Amino acid sequence: MTQPANTYKVLFVCLGNICRSPAAEAIFTDYAHKHQLKVTVDSAGTSNWHEGEKADQRMRTHARSRGYDITSLSRPFLPASDFDRFDLIVPMDDQNYYDLRALARTQDEVDKIMKVSELIKSTSYTYIPDPYYGGASGFDLVIDLLEDVAENLCEHIAAIKHTLGK
Q1: Which of 20, 42, 60, 75 is the catalytic position?
Q2: Is 20 a catalytic residue?
Q3: How confident is the model at residue 164 (pLDDT cuts 50, 70, 90)?
Q4: Which of 14, 75, 87, 93 is an active site residue?
Q5: Which residue range is the domain that position 36 belongs to?
Q6: Structural domain includes residue 3
Q7: pTM to 2 decimals?
């Protein structure tokens, strides 16, 4: 993985970039701020189906009820620039993980991709389920899981910065 500079750059990726990854972006931004970490956070989709659209209204509503404001607009993952720009890329499920690995041009780019399962500690889930076709409980579950991911990612980044003396 690329050594972090002053600011650590994290990209969350899901399929359409309208539910899971924009929620991850908002939640992790909040957690990183509380942990006083210097980060740049963004989200993207492996598809461009919703490019330029706001996050799903249901996701925004559930996130807002928990104190998170999702403001990003959907964009597709851009291999040529995103692999260069970000220190860590976190796909929300195995399909997105394998899709991103297939887009990587070098081993260094592959090494920037971290399975979300490495950041989920409080449950047996190994991915962030897509709530798009489900009910309200699916959106709440996603937020619960992403809060766990955010806390563990803050610890991961703090440990890296400590190891490097940053």
Answers
A1: 20
A2: yes
A3: low
A4: 14
A5: 8-164
A6: no
A7: 0.94
Q: Per the structure, how many domains does the chain have? A: 1
The residue annotated as part of the active site, out of 42, 56, 87, 130, is: 130
Q: What would you report as the CA-atom Rg of the chain, rounded to the nearest whole angstrom?
A: 15
Are 112 and 103 in contact by the 8 Å Cβ rule? The answer is: no
Whether 82 sits among the annotated catalytic residues: the reply is no
What the block records as the tokens of 92 is: 């929300």
Q: Is the pLDDT of residue 3 over 50?
A: no
Is the pLDDT assigned to residue 139 strictly greater than 50?
Answer: yes
| Domain-located, residue 2 | no
Which comes out higher in pLDDT, residue 80 or 164? 80
- CA 149 vs. chain centroid, Å, equals 9
Judged by DSSP in three states, 91 sits in: strand
Strand order in the sheet with 8-14: 39-45, 8-14, 88-91
**CATH number of residue 113's parent domain:** 3.40.50.2300
